[in-house]
Amino acid sequence: MKKELLDLYADYLISSFGATTATGLSKLLDGQVSHDQITRLLAGKKQGSAELWQLLKPQVRKMQSDAGVMIIDDSIEEKPYTDENDIVCWHYDHSKDRLVKGINFLTALYHSQGMSLPVGFTLIAKTESYVDKKEGKTKRRSPVTKNAYARQMLQQAVDNQIPFQYVLTDVWFASAENMGFIKQNLQKDFVMPLKVNRKVALSLDDKRQGKYVRVDTLVFADPTPKQVYLEGVPFLLLLVKQVFTNEEGSTGVLYLVTSDTTLTFDDITTIYQKRWHVERYHQSLKQNASLAKSPTQTIVTQTNHFFAALCAFVKLELLKSSTHLNHFALKTKLYVTALHSAFDQLRQLQPIPLTA
Questions:
Q1: pLDDT by 10s per residue, the chain, length 356
Q2: 263 part of a folded domain
Q3: 198 within some domain
Q4: Which of 17, 179, 185, 325 has the maximal Cβ count within 10 Å?
């Protein structure tokens, strides 16, 4: 993929407030770049994590630190009106508790020194068909689970020599297999939330005798972390109960576990708070980088548009550092500038007044 043209296309995704098309960019550049050049850019070699790393490596090296964290999470960009294929298909959305049609993407987001950069991504491709025994309907599935993809991305981050101390995930990636892989294979630590029905033993003897209790039955008299053995995990963990107030005033509870047994309650909750950077990433990618505003129809063009949207996010993140404006403030600034230009252009045309 030609870097100069990719650079222009990413800038176009940031600057646009409507549909993003090859024709639209060509017109914006007064024909200096043809429609066919942009079409060939999107229809060229499919871009993936390896290509993203080659682009981002210099920037990551500037912001990396041993105190960095690697955040694993997935999201769905809904595309209800796009023809179904291996990547635009039906996925279960946990946040909405229903199936939605769109692109399900998984990201390894590296956060260090106030910056967040996507250092790996996977678009979940449901390439296999099967018949659901309960419903009798033919459905799609991926031959590789999201948890397996997550472990692959973490291994690649280590292979790329990205320094990080903790892996942060939401409850859907808090499996015993993932925990064991992070601690034993990667020699890293993690902070993860548990479902309330997960079971723990309160001592090594209890573990050996199979005496496990649900985490939501435990009494926490003070914030001091409890030493526990999670069912299916061979090493000692610390468990804390965090009670918080939601925006609407309701109370929520998180049961957080970590493999770093030196941490305090404040350490654990402060580290886990960094996971929310991935929510900001998802929001900005969708709203500020024109992720869903391309009419691309094939798997290759849809993948390459997604790749370009990631590049647009990275540009916004770098601009945030230099301008001290967040992504949404930057986008608003562009909109106001465009509005001023349109208003001035209209006044130059001397519009007819409503009253004589």
A1: 688 999 999 999 999 999 999 998 999 988 899 989 999 999 999 999 999 999 999 999 999 999 999 999 999 999 999 999 999 999 988 888 889 999 999 999 999 999 999 999 999 999 999 988 888 888 899 999 999 999 999 999 999 999 999 999 999 999 999 999 999 999 999 999 999 999 999 999 999 999 999 999 999 988 999 999 999 999 999 999 998 887 777 888 999 999 999 999 999 999 999 999 999 999 999 999 999 899 899 999 999 999 999 999 999 999 999 999 999 999 999 999 999 999 999 989 987 888 75
A2: no
A3: no
A4: 179
Domain count, the chain: 1
Q: Residue 327: which domain range?
A: 1-44+295-350+352-356
Would you say residue 240 lies in a domain? Answer: no
Full 3-state SS string of the chain: CCHHHHHHHHHHHHHCCCCCCHHHHHHHCCCCCCHHHHHHHHHCCCCCHHHHHHHHHHHHHHHCCCCCEEEEEEEEEECCCCCCCCCEEEEEECCCCEEEEEEEEEEEEEEECCEEEEEEEEECCCCEEEECCCCCCEEEECCCCHHHHHHHHHHHHHHCCCCCCEEEECHHHCCHHHHHHHHHHCCCEEEEEECCCCEEECCHHHHHHCCCEEHHHCCCCCCCCEEEEECCCCCCEEEEEEEEECCCCCEEEEEEEECCCCCCHHHHHHHHHHHHHHHHHHHHHHHHCCCCCCCCCCHHHHHHHHHHHHHHHHHHHHHHHHHCCCHHHHHHHHHHHHHHHHHHHHHHCCCCCCCC
Assigned domain for 332 exists: yes
> Is pTM, for the whole model, over 0.85?
yes
